[in-house]
Amino acid sequence: MTSMTFSLRRMARKLNWRVILQVLGFAVLFESVLLLLPMLVALIHKETAMVRALGITIAGTGIAGFLLSRVQPRKKNHFARDGLTAVGLIWLVLSAAGAIPFWISGEIPSYVDSFFCRQLL
Q1: Which of the four, 35, 87, 104, 116, has the lowest number of CB atoms within 10 Å?
Q2: pTM
Q3: Alpha carbon 97 to chain centroid distance?
């Protein structure tokens, strides 16, 4: 068990975290721009709770994405393990951010249910 933990720590140190965070920032920033489309639809249909929830989410993801995209990597080179880590983190972070509007608006009462897209009947 200890050797496995040591191996994971050593491998995590080899990752180019600044490149990974910068890519993650661009993805989160792109999501905040794409969330403007459902906000437009919610405005057209006069769904005030969803407009408020989307506004909060857009502001949060926009700020986080902007700050993360400003991270400057020390080394420009990156390897497959960096890309794989970035893609895995992007999937998790975009899923977490995409669940926020449903939870804030009250459409899905539990954040865990909205994260896993489980609609309670």
Answers
A1: 116
A2: 0.84
A3: 5
DSSP secondary structure, 27-74, as one string: HHHHHHHHTHHHHHHHHHTT-HHHHHHHHHHHHHHHHHHHHHHTPPPS
pLDDT (tens digit, 9 = 90+) per residue, 84-105?
999 999 999 999 999 999 999 9
Nearest-CA neighbor of 50 among 60, 38, 59, 62?
A: 38
CA atoms of 43 and 110, how far apart (whole Å)? 24
* In contact, 100 and 57? CB cutoff 8 Å: yes
The residue written with tokens 């990752």 in the block is 15
51: pLDDT strictly greater than 80: yes
Is 115:95 a contact under the CB 8 Å cutoff?
A: yes
Both structure tokens of 21: 């965070």
Pick from 107, 93, 3: which is nearest to 51 by CA?
A: 107
Handedness of CA 71, 75, 81, 83 (dihedral sign): positive
Euclidean distance between CA atoms 33 and 88, whole angstroms: 21
Q: Which residues contact 10 (CB under 8 A, 6 or more apart)?
A: none
Do residues 105 and 52 lie in contact, with contact meaning Cβ atoms separated by under 8 Å? yes
